[in-house]
Amino acid sequence: MPRSPTDPVSAFAELGSIKLSEVNLDEVLQRVAEVAQRAMPMPVEVSVTLVRGGAEHTAAFTSKLARDMDERQYAQGRGPCLEAAASGAVVSVPDFASEDRWPVWADRGREQGLGSSLSIGLPIQEAVVGALNVYAHTPEAFNDEAVTVLETFAAYAAVALSNAQLYDSTANLARQMQEAMANRAVIEQAKGIIMGERRCTPAEAFAILSKVSQDSNRKVRDVAQTLVDRAVGTTGA
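Above: the chain's sequence. Below: its structure in token form.
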């Protein structure tokens, strides 16, 4: 029985209902891949390639075939999904039987029953790039309308990824600020202890901490923590 594709408008509405704050990035990308697959009028397999720090991986896929076709490109260091990820462009393989840019990879795809593919670069900035990859079982499967629809899916995946990066950056900044505040608190406590023992000024107390730090080749924060722990232990005794 022929499959009934999901109307693109309904597909985009389904993606729009996802609350990015409540699901992780891999879950969002998996939903993008699955909804994109259903929105195509022909049988396709979909995957999402991410490249971070020079390392490529398939973050979402609708079948083992799609993942394997991606991974063959990673192993060879070249292919349409990597080219699309690097350039941010649309890279089309209209017919696997006549593909001459990546003939070994295309031959493998043809053996697996594939006829054409489309990789769309995700418009992401900073340290991560990626591509939405769609594999069809027939040659010349993607007309202009299909490309436009898939570009919208790619844009949504890029937004999700950008939001995830922003969240990670914000979370890292918050952790760094908390750590800095904790370090400052310990150092201030240690200065207070030294000031009470030595009857010195705050600047002189910090100078003493710094000298111990240099002499022992330890961080000022660690020296301060040792002093505070010792003082607390003495008080507790």
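Residues 144-198 form the longest helix (55 residues).
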